[in-house]
Design a protein that fits this description.
The protein is built from 13 helices and 20 strands. The protein is an alpha/beta fold. It folds into 3 domains: 179 residues, FAD/NAD(P)-binding domain (3-Layer(bba) Sandwich), CATH 3.50.50.60; 149 residues, FAD/NAD(P)-binding domain (3-Layer(bba) Sandwich); 53 residues. Helix 4 links the parallel strand 10 and strand 11. The two termini are 33 Å apart.
Length: 473
């Protein structure tokens, strides 16, 4: 899949760990690099921090972040940039609106490159629960972002619930900022976790650093006497004008609630996280092959089915920051035209191999097919269009198009990113509702200006290479 031709201009889309590593390695290999990200500051979700507000204890791998930041001295970094269209071909193009997302005067700009690294990451998957639209309910990722970026806890007393190891740092962050964590509720049973993570432990040697992180999280829970409930789920959220309590219930191996095990836990906020969903829109627009597991297919150098398009990070599989860093380094080298035989690949190849063993263990936290049993007829599944479960059930035998036109599920502002997979689970089918090519919202006026600018730009023969230089415009 990957090309061995030398690439001089490299564009990296996404500035989380994978994107930063890709930009740094491509620049070090001699490529002219532009790094484009929608955030105000680079770092992505993992290094989402404010220079003045963030508690230093919440900044993981600070030295690695500092080293990567220094490595970007020769890279043009474009922040607060919304990519609204990408084009495959020669050259590869990205059409961008630069400025605050809610600003009225965003600048239209087109970037061209010989190779692109897509490192757009993933977002939380949150399963619908009766009452999840109440004020005080956030995704686990949002709770972590608030903590890292703003130095705030989501509430006075929080229940952290869902599945996967990400629940641990979220709980720790809340307590560090003075909030109380009532419980951490994990859907996987203790036995399932022990069997999954304890299988062939020698394979996790490369991820030994994770053990230290795990220890700090567990110590924090123990210090604050926070209960950790295995094999359980929040199956209802109670309240009038906001969260007042939740029902925690035991679930079976397929996540079906077990009758008679309900408990009520008082709280004023809930952080829900049931894993992650890759952000595939850029890869889809470029025409990259997507596997049945909803991740982009890659070769050994992170190359895709599209020539000169590489991918790294969570859009290739959920594996955490260390896996993303190694994949990003590989993708950056490949995009810069470094042949696979080069010695510079040895270290990231080894790191990627080790972290894939860690990522494989995350499967023990996968969502069970029985979770829809805790929904009620009036539970909202598609929040953008306020579509309830009962409405979806009416169109269970309809085609994907008919269902969406009749219910508008997946046609709202998020374009199915939040609800798509949950809608499919409710209907018991696979429509790939979340596999949409829409990248970001664009005002009609901005679109008109951007198209006119692109027409002029192509008539003039396109931008010169200085458009990718640091500080260029």
């Amino acid at each position: 899949m990957s090309s061995t031709a030398t690439h001089r201009r490299v564009m990296v889309i996404g500035a989380g760990p994978a994107g930063l590593a890709a930009a740094a390695s491509a620049s070090a290999a001699g490529a002219q690099v532009v790094l484009i990200d929608e955030g105000e500051r680079f770092g992505g979700q993992f290094w989402r921090h404010h220079p003045d507000l963030t508690d230093p204890r919440l900044q993981h791998q600070r030295r690695r972040f500092a080293d990567l930041s220094t490595s970007l001295e020769g890279v043009r970094v474009v922040s607060s940039a919304s990519v609204w269209r990408v084009e495959p071909g020669s050259p590869l193009r990205a059409h961008v609106l630069v400025g605050p997302a809610d600003g009225a005067q965003r600048l239209a700009e087109t970037f061209e490159a010989d190779a692109v690294v897509v490192a757009t990451g993933a977002h939380d998957r949150v399963l619908p629960v009766p009452g999840w639209t109440l004020p005080g309910v956030t995704s686990a990722g949002a709770a972590q972002a608030i903590a890292k970026r703003d130095g705030l806890a989501p509430g006075v007393r929080t229940v952290v619930a869902g599945a996967g190891p990400f629940l641990l740092p979220v709980g720790q962050s809340v307590t560090m900022l003075g909030g109380e964590v009532a419980e951490v509720v994990e859907a996987a049973s203790a036995g399932r976790i022990l069997r999954g993570w304890g299988r062939r432990p020698w394979e996790l040697t490369a991820a030994a650093g994770k053990a230290g992180e795990l220890g700090s999280y567990l110590l924090s829970l123990a210090r604050h006497r926070i209960p950790y409930r295995f094999g359980s789920a929040v199956t209802r959220i109670h309240g009038e004008g906001g969260v007042e309590a939740v029902t925690v219930q035991r679930i079976d191996a397929e996540w079906r609630p077990i009758a008679g095990t309900e408990r009520t836990v008082e709280c004023d906020s809930v952080a829900l996280g049931h894993g992650f969903t890759p952000r595939l829109e850029v890869a889809i627009q470029l025409g990259c092959e997507i596997g049945s597991d909803r991740f982009v297919r890659t070769d050994s150098q992170q190359g895709t089915s599209v020539a000169r398009v590489y991918v790294a990070g969570e859009i290739t599989g959920i594996g955490g920051a260390d896996a993303a860093l190694s994949e990003g380094e590989i993708a950056g080298l490949a995009a810069a035209g470094v042949p696979a035989s080069d010695a510079r690949y040895r270290s990231p190849f080894a790191a990627r191999r080790g972290m894939r063993a860690f990522a494989a263990r995350l499967d023990v936290h996968r969502i069970g097919v029985g979770w829809t049993a805790w929904l009620e007829d009036d539970t909202i599944v598609c929040r953008c269009e306020t579509v309830a479960k009962a409405t979806l059930d009416e169109y269970a035998t309809a085609s994907s198009r008919a269902m969406r036109l009749a219910t508008r599920a997946g046609l709202g502002a998020c374009q199915g990113r939040t609800c798509g997979r949950s809608v499919e689970d409710v209907l018991g089918t696979t429509f790939s509702i979340d596999r949409r090519p829409v990248l970001s919202s664009v005002r009609i006026g901005e679109l008109a200006v951007a198209i006119a600018s692109d027409v002029d730009h192509r008539a003039d023969g396109g931008p010169c290479q200085s458009s990718l230089e640091p500080g260029g415009s």
